[in-house]
Amino acid sequence: MIGYLTAFILTCSMIMNVGEDPINYIEISIELINRLEKKEAVTDLVEVLAASSEEAIYKQIKTDKQKYAFWVNVYNAYIQIILTENPDLYEDRNKFFKKSLIEIAGRTYSFAEIEHGILRRSQMGLFLGYVTNPFPPRHEKRLRVEERDFRIHFVLNCGAKSCPPVAAYTPEDVDKAFDYMTQQYLENTTVYNEQEDSYQVTALFSWFRGDFDGSAGIRDILQNFEVISSRPDKLTTLPYDWTLDLYNYKEIPLDQL
Questions:
Q1: Which residue from 70, 93, 104, 176 lies 20 to 30 Å from 80 (Cα-Cα)?
Q2: What is the pTM of this model?
Q3: Domain ranges (residues) in the chain
Q4: What percentage of residues in the chain have a pLDDT greater than 70?
């Protein structure tokens, strides 16, 4: 049975017939997160995104703030949707992240394509953030961000226990929200070893070190976010807990930031 929101949108489309798409796709992505947190049905929203056009997405979602808000919301939402329905997919994570599962604008994306292609601006998966794909697909070039932002690693939730929690992002507040989530995540995952006078940090720093400008950049980030008080000579990484952990949401206190 068609959802009420879908029916309303289709009616609007028929009334307008021509001109600008009446659907606000960023609002759809935000509503996805909000409904999932409340454990409400999202079938109608999924249908709207599947039925959208690449041209409409491209025309509406132009700035990096819009792209980060929309695609992070989509990524996080579909992790919850797909793994809630079929948690067995997580047993082979390498295959899961590369499998085309997310239908947006007439194209089916994998989580890897959204993360590395759109949000990390066509980064090659095995090169730690140091090599950009010189020949990305045309649609990826149209939709991807202009500037990479290391903070996405602290807002993307891939379903694991060590992932940051899920929140709804808006273009207007994306900078404040990303800063807040980055600070929270780094504070929760950075451990000081007094005996060795060293710090243990999230494995994300190692896996995507090029996104952070290497070891010097990682230390700068930890200091800039006031997670460490002095510049350590030694950093080691903590094991990443890949235990499936869904329904991990967090409210961002934007009025206090």
A1: 176
A2: 0.91
A3: 4-256
A4: 92
